[in-house]
Amino acid sequence: MELSALIKKIGHPLVEIRVRALKNIICKLDHSLISVADIVQEKMLFVYLLEWFNFPEVPMQEEALELITTLSKHPTAAQMLRDVGAVDFLAQLSQKVEPRLRAVIDGALDQLFQLPELMPSHTIVYSGKTQTTTEVLPNAVRETVRCLKFSVFPWLTLTNTDRHILSSNEGSLRSSNLNLVRTTCELLRDVIMQDFPLEVFLQRPGIVKILLSLLSVGSGKAEKNYLYFQALSCLRQLCVGLRRRLRCHQDPSFYSTKQDPVSQNSSFSHEVQGSQPSQASSPAAEQSPRPSVVGRPGQRARGDGQDGDATSNGGSSHRGGAAARAPRQTPQSPVAHLELPDLCVEDSLELQLQQLTLAQFSVATIQHSIPLLKTGRSSHVFHRVLELLSEAVLLLGDSVSELVWDDGSLVGIELKEKLQASMELLGDILNFHHNCSAEISQSSRIHHKMAYTGTAIFTIKLLQTILPPEKWPIWSK
Question: Which of 28, 250, 292, 321 has the fewest beta carbons under 10 Å from its own?
Fold first, then answer.
């Protein structure tokens, strides 16, 4: 049962919608339509339950606290509640509620203060009813993630202009107009991915998820085959750019002791710096073809780490050159008064919980691309897929270590299962190309041989990247 949409409504600004959503979840639990084990993995549920008490009007306080108490009896849920700061929140809330509610809060805190291995894991009591559940990954809760070489990039704050650009392009990618989707992919590849720091697309993964879904559209039409090329090209450029950004963040000279919530690479800092035009420019900067964002006096620095986007205020920077050659906007300028729709303030906590790690992105890219290796018709699609997979496996090697096969954490188990599924699919594809029919044409037979060779080479590369030699006998059984 899909609960994400229902859980999101618990944080809705309208009190009627919040109340209906909470009653809906409680009713489903009461009538065993869902179990506690079904919802403990929904991290946003815990955030919304705590934020329930931050609204001006707070109905059903006792019911919300009882639900928190019930969830806290499950080891996975208790860990997530601790991760989102429930202990401090409930301790402060206890001082502001009625005495009868303090007892409920104390019960939840008692559960959260217990060590994970001492917590009950099989019997959960809810509203007078006993639910017997199977413990969900109890050992994984206790395990520390050991398999990640790199997790997430530092968080970047975006301006309203940049958020509008991303949201409008995400909406265009969802269009049923294939020509609009195609031109949007080209815009992403040629302009937007040159303009934004590429980790933004992992921190706000809507566009990435759509690009991955485009790899699964039905084939057979030339327009849809062309969408393959566009999506593969965008994802490949994203992989290359993310590796470049990773190298930039690993460079000691990039490190800054100043802990600023607005990163020096974020669009907010670019906007502030861009408002101070440089006094000099270089010929290379004056010839830069990259357009500036509407409403800004100068060009926005690139996000690929190649043109001094982080620290350069000198005359040789692209931003300075654009500012020098662009006329200063006066209050009478019509462009200066152009206002974009005001998007609501970003909920940074919610967005950071939804962002993709570098490992998740690389594994998802591999998992969605491998099925295209089975194509029996288009060698062009096959070559593009291999190009993307070659970049994705490099990114995988930079973000995931060989310990993934022995990592008992939730993250390690998820990555291991997806990698195993990808390897099994690679085996099926190798079998498909190896056992092609003898009655096919000579050109098709050549295509299958080339596809088999290319798939086999990628499989070896993938195994060499994340599977240590001592694990190889496991796959030969």
Answer: 250
Q: What is the distance between the alpha carbons of residues 395 and 363, in angstroms, rounded to a whole number?
A: 9
Cβ atoms 300, 292 nearer than 8 A = yes
What CATH number corresponds to the domain at position 76?
1.25.10.10
Q: Which domain holds residue 227?
A: 160-250+354-476
Q: How far apart are CA 74 and CA 115, in angstroms?
A: 12
Are 147 and 401 in contact by the 8 Å Cβ rule? The answer is yes
Q: In Å, what is the CA distance from 103 to each residue of 21, 65, 87, 93, 106?
A: 25, 10, 15, 12, 5
Question: Does residue 457 register a pLDDT over 70?
Answer: yes
74 shares its domain with 186 = no
**Could you give the number of structural domains in the chain?**
2
Q: Any idea which residue has 């049962």 for tokens?
A: 1
Contact by Cβ (8 Å): 234, 189: yes
Question: pLDDT tens-digit profile of 293-344?
Answer: 333 334 444 444 444 444 434 333 333 333 333 444 444 434 444 444 555 5
Residue with tokens 């306080």: 61
